[in-house]
Write a structure and sequence with these properties.
339 residues, alpha/beta, TIM Barrel, 17 helices, binds hypoxanthine, binds zinc ion
Length: 339
């Protein structure tokens, strides 16, 4: 790839809309926090941990990801994890981040909901001083029951003024959106935004269910939507944002080769696709690494990159006035940098 494109990506103002905080847990920080908590890690070094990150599918990854999250215990741990992510992406030109957390992963092992959420929110507030605004999205684990999700939603009640939305993540196959209709109805009634992972490993049918049964505002991943022309038409007509994660797709074998990644085709089809990192500590890079990898493999142009940056703000849950300001910043950057 042309070096000037890498420089263009680096400074491009952008939003990240698909990021699991537990997936930003870098091995070095894992060792530091394990030491602080006198917890054991079955590895000798950060390099050894990274060498173990070879996955053949989503479940392979999730098994390791949930085990590593077990090191996180105190409010300070959740704060430090979140602040490290914000510091890292401030350097990537990220101006706004809508981040996921998985409370059930922690409450199931006795960590209070308030410890997790309080630590994360304290860091998100501090992130404003770094020039990164944020919104927090509570994800329900779809391998657990809807009833378990309701118990978590009840615990979240006192925090709902600080939680922008709910999502649905974890093992997709065998856990369709249709299993969570009542839970998402309750979240919608509470005034929350709704997102769901769909069409990562699961079929286009799961994307239809997320749209028609859960009434989501955004689809996380959505790759398999391209299998269904009627679905593509619907997503394009409604300009539903897809939070696409190229390096994640490569590492979890959702795509065989970055040259075959559907991102460019999504843009050509008029879909509101965005570029995101998903779980950057596990998949080999933060948001700009993802932009660079797809740009190099698919020959994206400056115009494509500008469209992706605009999509990231348009697909966000920011109010219209803030969207307008961010879109103007993207346009000013593009004009000042030769496109
Ligand atoms: N898919 C589903 N669940 C997840 C992911 C993902 O990519 N990352 C973290 N939890
Ligand atoms: Zn994800």
């Amino acid at each position: 790839m042309d070096d000037s494109l890498a420089v263009f990506i680096a400074g491009l103002p952008k939003a990240e809309l698909h990021l699991h905080l537990e997936g930003s847990f870098e091995p070095e920080q894992m060792f530091a926090i394990a030491r602080r908590n006198k917890a054991n890690i079955p590895f000798k070094s950060a390099e050894e941990v990274r060498a173990a990150y070879r996955f053949s599918n989503l479940q392979d990854f999730l098994d390791i990801y949930y085990r590593a999250a077990g090191v996180l215990r105190s409010e300070e741990d959740f704060h430090d994890l979140t602040l490290a992510y914000l510091k890292r992406v401030a350097a990537d030109g990220v101006r706004h981040a809508e981040v996921f957390f998985d409370p059930q992963t922690h409450t199931a092992r006795g960590i209070p909901f308030a410890t997790v959420t309080g630590g994360i929110l304290r860091a998100l507030n501090e992130g404003q001083n770094l020039g990164v605004t944020s919104k927090l999205i509570l994800c329900f684990l779809r391998h657990l029951s809807e009833e378990d999700g309701f118990a978590t939603f009840k615990e979240a009640e006192p925090w709902l003024d600080q939680i922008a939305g709910v999502g649905l993540d974890s093992s997709e196959l065998g856990h369709p959106p249709s299993q969570f209709v009542r839970l998402f109805d309750a979240a919608r009634t509470a005034g929350l935004k709704l997102v769901a992972h769909a069409g990562e490993e699961g079929p286009a049918e799961y994307v239809w269910e997320a749209l028609d049964l859960l009434h989501v505002d955004r689809i996380d991943h959505g790759n398999r939507s391209l299998d269904d022309p009627r679905l593509v038409e619907r997503l394009a007509a409604e300009q539903t944002a897809l939070t696409v994660c190229p390096l994640s797709n490569l590492k979890l074998c959702v795509v065989k080769d970055m040259a075959r990644h559907p991102l460019k085709r999504m843009l050509e089809l008029g879909l509101r696709a965005t570029v995101n990192s998903d779980d950057p500590a596990y998949f080999g890079g933060y948001v700009n690494d993802n932009f660079q990898a797809v740009t190099a493999a698919l020959g994206l142009t400056r115009a494509d990159l500008v469209a992706l940056a605009k999509n990231s703000f348009l697909g966000s849950f920011l109010d219209d006035a803030k969207k307008v300001r961010h879109l103007a910043a993207v346009e000013a950057y593009a004009a000042a940098n030769g496109s």
